[in-house]
Design goal:
By secondary structure, the chain is α+β, with helices and mostly antiparallel strands. It has four helices and seven strands, in the order ββααααβββββ. A hairpin with a 3-residue loop joins β4 and β5.
Amino acid sequence: MSTTPATLVNITYDELKEGDTATFSRTLTHDELVLFAAVSGDVNPLHLDADFAATSLFKERIAHGMWSGSLISAALATVMPGPGTIYLEQSLAFRRPVKLGDTLSITLTVLSKEPRHRVRLECAIRNQHGQPVVVGEAKVIAPTEKLSVPKPTLPKISIAS
């Protein structure tokens, strides 16, 4: 039995309209937290050491703020505008911590279309309880040519201590 690989389809500058929205979601796992620390180099014990984090304001380990921010990048690159998007700017305000097991939903909303294929988007991240986690605004160069590309298959990564 043959299966068709998943594809990523973009939304071109000409197709985008003010008010258009798109969503993307992801759940924070222990492995993702550790991988983000390894890739970013941010080894703050607040993220990695349960005993240390228990003495903090949050009383438990929390995600790196930029893990949440990176989900905006993923949404822009894979959902709206999608493949071919060039990320130019991002503002972020962190509203509440993200804890292990939290599922974040990223909503992108087109605020305006500007000259030279620039698009401003509102970026809102909410947890599974509907609480705001991160708010901000992005500016991108939207693609001008329609693309439909296979979604890459990433290698399996395992974590060993």
